[in-house]
């Protein structure tokens, strides 16, 4: 562990001096204290390890050990005992000392102990971070953002999470966090210890999707040589996440609706009703309401799903979250790539906040990942985000259709007026801006 700070506590200056010298040679930062009082005060300023004499003028080294461990249980302590005093050594170990060395000690041996001890702190810290992550893999706090719309989403998810209501519809553009929200719902619910099953409705042909979801009996179709439980059955007690529900064919929509209403279904080729208790969370990146109007989606299923509806806002409508998300991903990629990026240059941050983020948080995450792989210094600048300088011409083809749809006529009118105004009502120039006179 390079850069670790070692605090040497001994009232004998010569011992301190020899230890400090040797530690510095090995590349450690060092602090020195001659009394228990100094030791406790210096430890608060941050020391990873203490070499602690048992006999100090103002107090017993053991009491320093106890105080230090109380302030920061991760601090390692190696006790230095004057002669082989087994009782003290045992008590020190019980109070959390890592080890002890008896005076007169061998410097090499002490250095070896220091090295070993520091390795364990590093490990212990890493383990703690991992445990925390595991314990709360998808708590509501994993949804980053402090904008009003995202706060509302977080609050709503927490509320629905603990409510017994069984069906939830998540809508939002691609990359806005629908998968994440589904997991937050599951892991913040009483169902958390039961399975979370997830399937993308557009990924499979309809017959396969049906048997994946509902299972099948032996002999239900060619190749069905034994009975198979579907996802819904396997998720009993837990949550089934149906992604891209808008892509589900009408036959399956009907079967799903029946299941939502009756809480039971028949496996493909089966006659018996199978009863299960699952929460269905469905997600869509299109407006299901429009799909209903177009006759692609069953109205009754839409209303059944839409009882609890959470709309994930696009990132461009909550630009104040952009810096928070960026620093969240900088932290996480710093760990992953072992980098030390401190942040984004102010000019680049302004540009990033103004950027359209058509791919929402997913695009932002990928952009930060790419930037961090490219960056050599410790700051990200505009040059690390190539999409910021992509040609203007892209705008026309790249405008994402908002989930609530647009009024094309009004948009057209507004663009024409803007073009005319920008060109002082010169029609030819305005037509050029709008790309209308390329032929003539
Ligand atoms: N508010 C958020 N805070 C942190 N990460 C987010 C947030 N929203 C989305 N993400 C992350 O962005 C990526 C895309 O999110 P995802 O849930 O897969 O979107 P969707 O399912 O809507 O396409 C994932 O890596 C997800 O963890
Ligand atoms: Mg998704």
The oligomeric state of the chains shown is: single chain
Helix tally equals 18
Shape: flat
* Low-confidence regions: 392-397
- Give the % helix: 40-55%
Termini, distance in Å?
71 Å
Q: Can you summarize the main beta sheet? A: 5 strands, parallel
| Strand line-up across the major sheet | 2-1-3-4-5
Share in β-strands:
5-15%
Determine Rg (CA atoms, Å): 32 Å
Arithmetic mean of pLDDT: 88
Small-molecule binders here are: adenosine-5'-diphosphate, magnesium ion
Structure described in brief:
46% of the residues lie in helices and 13% in strands. It contains 18 helices and 14 strands.
Task: Report on the architecture of this protein.
The protein is of the alpha/beta class. Helices cover 46% and strands 13% of the residues. It contains 18 helices and 14 strands. The protein has helices at residues 13-25, 36-44, 61-71, 86-94, 107-135, 148-162, 178-187, 206-214, 231-234, 250-262, 288-293, 299-305, 321-337, 346-354, 360-374, 394-398, 408-422, 427-433; strands at 5-9, 29-33, 49-53, 76-81, 99-102, 167-171, 196-200, 239-243, 264-266, 273-275, 279-284, 309-311, 343-344, 379-380. The strands form four sheets. A five-stranded parallel beta sheet has the order 2-1-3-4-5, sandwiched between helices. It has a five-stranded parallel beta sheet with strand order 7-8-11-6-12. Helix 6 packs parallel to helix 7 (178-187), helix 13 (321-337) packs across helix 15 (360-374) and helix 17 (408-422) crosses helix 18. It is flat, with a radius of gyration of 32 Å. Residues 392-397 have low confidence and may be disordered. Magnesium ion (MG) is lined by residues 178-179, 243.
């Amino acid at each position: 562990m390079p850069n670790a700070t070692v605090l040497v506590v001994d009232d004998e200056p010569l011992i301190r001096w020899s230890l400090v010298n040797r530690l510095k040679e090995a590349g450690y930062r060092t602090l020195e204290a001659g009394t228990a009082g100094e030791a406790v005060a210096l430890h608060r300023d941050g020391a990873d390890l203490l070499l602690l004499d048992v006999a100090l003028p103002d107090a017993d080294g053991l009491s320093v050990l106890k105080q230090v461990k109380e302030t920061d249980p991760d601090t390692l302590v190696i006790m230095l005992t004057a002669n082989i005093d087994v009782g003290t050594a045992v008590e020190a170990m019980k109070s959390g000392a890592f080890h002890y060395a008896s005076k007169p000690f061998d410097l090499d041996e002490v250095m070896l102990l220091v090295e070993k001890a520091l390795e364990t702190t590093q490990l212990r810290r890493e383990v703690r971070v991992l445990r925390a992550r595991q314990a709360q893999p998808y708590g509501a706090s994993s949804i980053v953002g402090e904008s009003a719309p995202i706060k509302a989403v977080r609050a709503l998810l927490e509320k629905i999470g603990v409510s017994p209501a069984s069906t939830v519809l998540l809508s939002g553009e691609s990359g806005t966090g629908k998968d994440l929200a589904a997991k937050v719902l599951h892991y913040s619910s009483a169902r958390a210890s039961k399975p979370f099953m997830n399937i993308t409705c557009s990924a499979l042909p309809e017959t396969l999707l049906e048997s994946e979801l509902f299972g099948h009996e032996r002999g239900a179709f060619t190749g069905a040589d034994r009975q198979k439980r579907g996802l819904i059955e396997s998720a009993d007690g837990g949550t089934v996440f149906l992604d891209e529900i808008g892509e589900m064919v009408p036959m399956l929509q009907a079967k799903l609706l029946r299941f939502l209403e009756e809480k039971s279904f028949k496996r493909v080729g089966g006659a018996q009703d199978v009863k299960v208790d699952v929460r269905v969370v469905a997600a869509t990146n299109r407006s299901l309401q429009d799909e209903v109007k177009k006759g692609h989606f069953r109205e009754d299923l839409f209303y059944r799903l839409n009882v609890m509806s959470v709309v994930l806002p696009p990132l461009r409508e909550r630009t104040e979250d952009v810096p928070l998300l960026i620093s969240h991903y900088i932290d996480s990629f710093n760990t992953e790539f072992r980098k030390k990026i401190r942040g984004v240059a102010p000019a680049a941050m302004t540009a990033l906040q103004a950027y359209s983020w058509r791919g929402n948080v997913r695009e932002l995450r990928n952009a930060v990942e790419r930037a961090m792989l490219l960056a050599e210094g410790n700051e990200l600048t505009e040059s690390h985000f190539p999409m910021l300088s992509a040609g203007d011409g892209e705008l026309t083809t790249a405008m994402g259709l908002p989930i609530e749809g647009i009024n094309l006529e009004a948009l057209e009118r507004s663009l024409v007026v803007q073009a005319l105004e920008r060109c002082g009502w010169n029609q030819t120039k305005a037509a050029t801006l709008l790309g209308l006179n390329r032929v003539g």
